[in-house]
Amino acid sequence: MSKAEKTRQFIIEKTAPIFNTKGYAGTSITDLTEATGLTKGSIYGNFTNKDEVALAAFDHNLKCMNTAVREQMDDQKTAKEKLLVYVRVYENFLYAPFPKGGCPILNTSTEADDTHPGLRQRAADAIESWKNLLSDIIKRGIADKEFKNNIEPEHIAISLIALIEGGIMIGKVTGKLHYRKAIMESITKMIENVGLL
Question: Which GO molecular-function terms appear in the entry (predicted)?
Fold first, then answer.
């Protein structure tokens, strides 16, 4: 890495938790300078503007989240076990090696849906990629005769994502973590019975 690349990476790593916690609109240039110890000129000498920093921060947070999931998923053998990793990780995301502030897809989707097209597109692409990954796992489960072959992998995949993200959002906004726990229990039952749908 060149010195410029190291500086960019430093800025991303220091500001990513702030964007994921405060959101794009809530993060000020003062937040960025305080987090990095750099001047505004130094930050904008490495990034064109706040938008560029925010997009890089989203990518960083998403990579951290995906790494946390894949590390646990790699230890699982069956398709069902791989799907259940999401329940474990998301149920305990406050304690797992997850980005500070929680799921960047959820956080960015709820804030940037009407206000920041670039971030909205990043979140939409992340959901699409997640759906494709889950669909592939379910297809593997069908091929291995773990699941019945009359199920729709894409429908199940997008439903799992909606339930996971919805569970986090409901628990977060109400402050009632037992709501999230109840939804995660429902997701577990859905996965355990996916071959019966």
Answer: DNA binding
First to last CA, the chain: 50
Nearest to 164 by CA among 146, 188, 135, 142: 188
Q: Are 70 and 134 in contact (CB under 8 A)?
A: no
The SS3 of residue 197 is coil
Model pLDDT for residues 72-128, shown as the tens digit of each residue = 899 999 999 999 999 888 887 655 677 888 899 999 998 876 788 999 999 999 999
- Looking at domain 54-196, which CATH architecture does it have? Orthogonal Bundle (1.10)
CA quadruple 31, 47, 108, 100: dihedral sign: negative
CA atoms of 62 and 130, how far apart (whole Å) = 11
- Return phi, psi of residue 119, to 5°: -70, -40
pTM: 0.90
